[in-house]
Batch of 2 targets.
Target 1
Amino acid sequence: RKEVEQDPGPFNVPEGATVAFNCTYSNSASQSFFWYRQDCRKEPKLLMSVYSSGNEDGRFTAQLNRASQYISLLIRDSKLSDSATYLCVAFSGTYKYIFGTGTRLKVLA
Amino acid sequence: NAGVTQTPKFQVLKTGQSMTLQCAQDMNHEYMSWYRQDPGMGLRLIHYSVGAGITDQGEVPNGYNVSRSTTEDFPLRLLSAAPSQTSVYFCASSYPGEKLFFGSGTQLSVL
């Protein structure tokens, strides 16, 4: 089993839709979590860190559920420019950032 | 502020050749790491370092060497390139546990 797992998608949604991605992690010692966005195999860019209490940044909301060991990303009012691959990342206590394989999102006009 | 500088952007090697991918950061980050990305596999950790003189293996270290003589630099060496090492390589740095900053990547082809 992969240490960080994501549904690869693709998720095809119309503009304006709300879409949610989940990511599960197996290492209960994981300390920090992040969502990154990657376009066409360019370098990943930080979308948002994920805090225990949940956090929001504009149209994006991230949640962490330590009991069930998953994190989620909610995108509201999807834009064409949101089309990308979204990478879930967990930082373990052994100084490793482990990436999920990514979830592809395509927002359709 | 340059951030993470990774060179070269593209490289073609013949099987058996050696080369070094360069990575430098100017943010005084303790943590530096190398990833490779293959279709359907996501980013896989090759090697990482938590400070000058300290390196450790990630998920896929075979065929790669690293060293960390300074805080700023973390080169990745391919000793004898193989076609299986054809991939996109990313260097990244951070304070441990905080957000990673990435270089722009190196597309490597081994023929």
Target 2
Amino acid sequence: QVQLVESGGGVVQPGRSLRLSCAASGFIFSNYGMHWVRQAPGKGLEWVALIWYDGSNKYYADSVKGRFTISRDNSKNTLYLQMNSLRAEDTAVYYCARGDFRVSSGWDLGNWGQGTLVTVSS
Amino acid sequence: DIQMTQSPSSLSAFVGDRVTITCRASQSISSYLNWYQHKPGKAPELLIYAASSLQSGVPSRFSGSGSGTDFTLTISSLQPEDFATYYCQQSYSTLLTFGGGTRVEI
């Protein structure tokens, strides 16, 4: 079965960096686009970034563009999110999700990890 | 960016009730609309894709409808396990966006 396991969360000071990882198993990782989605405390879901199956295209929410970088290593079945210049408002649970692209309806997120908590605080 | 607005933001209901949640897009998105259920401490789950297609394994009491800018998620007979927060998400733009969520509680 599809399994996604995030890691790398923790407490970090404003302005510092952190890298999240998402280990995938149970499916052919290199065939799927992958997403990061976050949820700040008491808030709703916010889409963060998308990377195509081969890493050739990447897309970001305006709130993280220029600070976060999504990447993947298909040989290791692992997705990454490099987060630089972190701000208090980046505090959230970060989920990785497998994207299923349908020609008639675009991307949906059919499988999610359990999330990893990032806290940005001095 | 395409903005998604859900209503209500929360609702109270009883087991067995019919529940309807609405989602409005800031521009026409055809049927590029998905619905998710999210329980505290758990991973979100996809319920409906393409506005009205039921994801495999999801109970048939869940249904979706709509196209263009106005969409609806309906739970025909609310069950105890359905108390959760529900989100719509547009997939018309590659920059995905979610609605603010609807919390369904007793």
